[in-house]
Amino acid sequence: MTKDKPMDILLRQDRDHIAHLTLNAPDRLNALSDAMLAALQGALDQIADDTAIRAVIIAGNGKAFCAGHDLREMQAGRQAGDGGAAYFADLFARCAAVMQRIQSMPQPVIAQVHGIATAAGCQLVATCDLAIAADDTRFGVNGVNIGLFCSTPMVALTRNIPRKAAFEMLTTGRFIHTDEATRLGLINRAVPATDLADETHNLAQTIAAKLPVAVKIGKSAFYDQAQLSTAEAYAYTSAVMVENMMVRDTDEGISAFLEKRAPDWS
């Protein structure tokens, strides 16, 4: 099923229970403009309620994955009577809502990254549940180079990579390549650019083949338990395991495994 139009700022194509979202503003390096953020929010909200979709891939058209916020739009916002303060507050709130939506939706979201992922674009990579990158991709939270510390991208970054590595990137504006991004945990792995789409789709297919309700329960618990102490996390996840065990299809899956047959999942 295809849901895209050539001129749309965000393209959607569904295949194999996977929603492929493509940032489609290559002339702006797929910047997270007002229109792009609105399109992403709308698509993610729609997909979250779509039980036919079991995984999501976010990619970018053109030579870059995403170069962050649209600086031209941001500067235009300064024309308001308050110098842009209200617009900037709203912009960063809308961006934060998109990032939080990615992690709150039931389906795992995979970033398919190429070219560059900078500032809020790097934030998007760090926010996605998984990330596969072309082996020549560069990542940076380089706002400091133009006098704007990447404070909101810092939230996702510091939850992905060691703090000292994150702080160095944030304060120096230094770009890292895929080998370092993999070692630090920003991405899962890097592959040749020619294999990027297939590798990402194959990962999404592997996830889509699992019991959807189990993945939904697990994704929610994955983020929730990370905010708790060890004792609290064990108490919480024990309750989650009980919830999962009470699902009819989980009973069927375990029985099928023991009986050495394919599960008859509803």
From TrEMBL:
This is Enoyl-CoA hydratase domain-containing protein 3, mitochondrial. InterPro entries: ClpP/crotonase-like_dom_sf, Enoyl-CoA_hydra/iso, Enoyl-CoA_hydra_C, Mitochondrial_ECH-domain. Belongs to the enoyl-CoA hydratase/isomerase family. It holds the Pfam family ECH_1. GO terms for molecular function: hydro-lyase activity. Keywords: Fatty acid metabolism, Lipid metabolism, Lyase, Transit peptide. May play a role in fatty acid biosynthesis and insulin sensitivity. It comes from Yoonia vestfoldensis SKA53. One of its GO terms (biological process) is fatty acid metabolic process. Signal peptide: none annotated.
